[in-house]
Structures are given as C-alpha cells and as structure tokens.
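Note to self: keep these together.
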Amino acid sequence: MPRPKDAALVTAMLKNVKHDLCTDCHKDPHRNELGEKCKTCHTLQGWKGKDVKFDHDKDSKYKLEGKHKDVKCAKCHKPKSENAALATALFKNLKYKLCTDCHKDPHKNKLGSACEYCHNLQGWEKKTK
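Structure:
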C-alpha cells in the first residue's frame, strides 16, 4: 500500500481499524494474566526498563519492605527461563502470606511459622529492635 502524504487520508484509512486497546495492535506478553491495564505499568514513551512505572507498594497487595526492596523482580516472579523477559513471569496469584511461601525453612518446620519471633524484614540473621 502506498504511503499517504495527507493527514486526512491517514485518518480516513484508520477509521475502521480497531485501536481501542493496546492488544488491538500489540501481542500481550503477560498472556492476559493482567487484563487490559497496560497503563498501570507502561507509558506511551516506552514499555520496559526505565519506562515501566509499576509501584509495588501502590499497585500490588504485597508491599516491599526491608530487604525485599533490594530483591530483583525476577527472583520472586520467576520468568519462564533464566534469560527470559520479565513479561513471561507470573504476576498474579503468587503466595506471600507466609515466609515459607518464598523462603526455605532452615528449621525444617520445627519452630512453626512465626518467623517474626526471631527475624524481621531488615535481615534474617538475628532480630534487631
């Protein structure tokens, strides 16, 4: 198709092209896991790296506190493979209520699930006040 030089012609050509949703033109790398909420994390300037605007503390149920703020996204969200794009990771339905949902229990459940009795979010070596 020849490239139109007239803006009115471009508008006329696009009149019947569906373009209400991002996925009308772009493949959804999140496999419809997040729905049509692209603008929650992405901008028109860019869609990855420094242009991602997702704020874990505002946009998710799990607030990143203490040492969790330093953890790379892929560590918890686990993309399909080590070098896969973060878009292939899981973003919904991750368990996080118990420390052992993410962390191995070095005590082999002999002390129960009250990790906060001895540990806190600032570090696991020893509870600090």
